[in-house]
């Protein structure tokens, strides 16, 4: 697999995923009782935007660069913007926080975080990022399997599934893992990230997921352009199971602003299925 998130850190899809993740964690954080968070594809946790990968792609400039320079970004981005500014106090955009950095700082006393990363070099960097968070653990492990086997059967849990969808079986394993997590703990919160390329592939994924899990799914789409070219990443989507009742409104703001500012013919959709 040739995927390296360093090429894509801070792009439009990260803005959507990370702003939504912070909103979800904020809502889960007001409820009593410890929360277990499992991140199936954690990456290195912190990204150098001055490195050759980020400079080559230019995706951060078109994503978080626009966000930090914007005067009209909705309040729902405040948590992410504050995190980025904390990492770049002089105002020059050099570093971008991945999900592990954001999750570790949102944990409360008694919460637990398992961050999974299979690549040895990425796992080593992840360990360094999480070293100061005693309730966080960086695992060099298959995230799909870890979520399936270690989601607590009782108590509160959030499982973030966001593979690169470059392995031929990533879609199938995502659906299987979602079903296994909710079978172990029907009340677990599930957040799935996936790229949007063509409509047929996306609809097939949603159909498979609906067949595999019970209950309503909340879906948030950010389309930069029409879903007509399966060779391009034309947008991204988030799919939630057991979503908090008030999550749809901030998702509309996140996806709508990102689609408008970062898209060519941007369009956002938030709905239940």
What does this structure look like?
The protein has about 270 residues and is of the alpha/beta class. Helices cover about 40% and strands about 20% of the residues. The chain contains eleven helices and ten strands. It has an eight-stranded mixed sheet, with helices on both faces. Strands 2-3 form a two-stranded antiparallel ribbon. The protein is globular, with a radius of gyration of 17 Å. The model has no long low-confidence stretch (mean pLDDT about 95).
Q: What does this entry show, briefly?
A:
With 273 residues, the chain is of the alpha/beta class. It has helices spanning 12-28, 52-57, 59-62, 64-69, 78-87, 99-106, 120-130, 143-150, 170-184, 199-212, 248-262, and strands at residues 35-39, 46-48, 95-97, 112-116, 136-139, 156-161, 189-196, 217-223, 235-241, 267-272.
In the sheet with the most strands, the strands line up as: 5-4-1-6-7-9-8-10
SSE pattern, N- to C-terminal: HEEHHHHEHEHEHEHEHEEHE
Q: Roughly what is the average pLDDT, rounded to an integer?
A: 94
E-strand count: 10
Tally the helices: what do you get? 11
| Biggest sheet descriptor | 8 strands, mixed
First CA to last CA: what distance? 32 Å
Q: Assign a percent range to the helix content.
A: 40-55%
> Mind telling me the C-alpha Rg?
17 Å
DSSP strand content: 15-25%
Silhouette: globular
- Class inferred from helices and paired strands: alpha/beta
Multimerization state: single chain
Low-confidence stretches: none
